[in-house]
Amino acid sequence: MGYGDCIVFLLAKASQKSQNLLKNRLKPLGLTSVQALVLEALLEEDGLTAGEIGKRLLLDNATVSGVLDRLADSQWIIKRSDTGDKRVLRIFLAAKAKNMEPQLIRERDAANDEVLSGFSMEERIVLKRLLRDFI
């Protein structure tokens, strides 16, 4: 089997292409794809801890920590101590992120649609199922 038929190669190239599509759409917002994922996790449930965000997005603590620092520096999020346990840091969306939610979702959906544009509805369902099963 040549590299062109190797599933690891094909998945890597598909990931690279889809990430570039999303990256280009998020660039005007000043966000990376991982930063956008973190914001979307907080859109689903504001006030998560860094550990909870990492578990939901399958990211290691070091990655999450760096992303959160950059998002806080750019005023996308606010870090606050938990009211019940001051040792716990909770992450909340700042007004900037709340105001940009529709655009953030539109850009994500547009990139998603572009990636899936060559697939039938049945192929889209199967592809998503196979990828979810793999991860």
- Unreliable spans are none
Percent range for helical residues? 55-70%
Mean pLDDT: 94
Order of strands in the sheet with the most strands? 1-3-2
CATH architecture: Orthogonal Bundle
Tell me the fraction of residues in β-strands, as a range.
5-15%
How many helices?
Answer: 6
The SSE order reads HHEHHEEHH
Report the top-level CATH class.
Mainly Alpha
Which structural class matches the secondary elements?
Answer: mainly alpha
Integer tally of domains: 1
How far apart the termini lie comes to 24 Å
State the major sheet: 3 strands, antiparallel
Whole-angstrom Rg: 17 Å
> What is the CATH fold-level name?
Arc Repressor Mutant, subunit A
CATH homologous superfamily?
Winged helix-like DNA-binding domain superfamily/Winged helix DNA-binding domain
Number of strands: 3
State the shape: globular
